[in-house]
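Go through this chain.

——
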Amino acid sequence: MIADVPEWRVGDKVIYRNNQFIAFNKPVAVATQPDKTEDVSLITLAERYARSPLFLTHRIDRPASGVVLFAKTKRALQSINQQFKDRTIRKKYLAIVGNPPPESTGILHNQLIKNSKTNKTSTVNEDNEKGVAAELRYTVLAKSEKYVLLEIDLITGRHHQIRAQLGAIGSPIRGDVKYGFKRGNKDRSIQLHAWKLSFIHPVSNEEVSIEAPLPSDPLWDYFKPFCEKPILPPTQSKE
């Protein structure tokens, strides 16, 4: 038996599935895979739902929500891994921040270092040999009296990348006290949502675009009308 099974039904979180893949809209505060807390993870619940082993293709942070894609076969996993390596997969996030970035649209380039003891990523000087390159593109979609909605096109996939890079420019994500926001959310969530994921299907060779509906709370509900536009085709970094 699984302890601490959540009140929500994992089957209700399925947003895409076929013989090769299954994708879920991960709720906030749920770990993608087992961690030191021993809380029930999404992959544990997903495998029980699918009644078969699944292969995790990528991760999103526990306090964030959104698309998590699992492969059902090793062939499908290998295809997705190669697409991640080639940076042809498009990952688009939404973030709500308190302070607007300096420009309405821009590209952030940073060198990042992960501290495993604190589970935190920091930006470092470009000449630091231990740093890894990180790149994202952001666009301001909308503003309220207190907050700003950003669309994030994630080009590289580093540990806590979006959180660290936005924190570094003085635009930390709402609720993300680890990266500079003044106060946390009551449910320990942060307003970061893995919104869209697009890739090439390994069998049909057609592009697949998956979209995860936004969480339901007053702030996300306010910004929802500003998020209704089509996903753009995949892009590659110039690195």
Q: What stands out?
A: Confidence is low (pLDDT under 50) at residues 230-239. Residues 10-227 form a domain with the Pseudouridine synthase fold (CATH 3.30.2350.10). The CA atoms of residues 103 and 142 lie 13 Å apart.
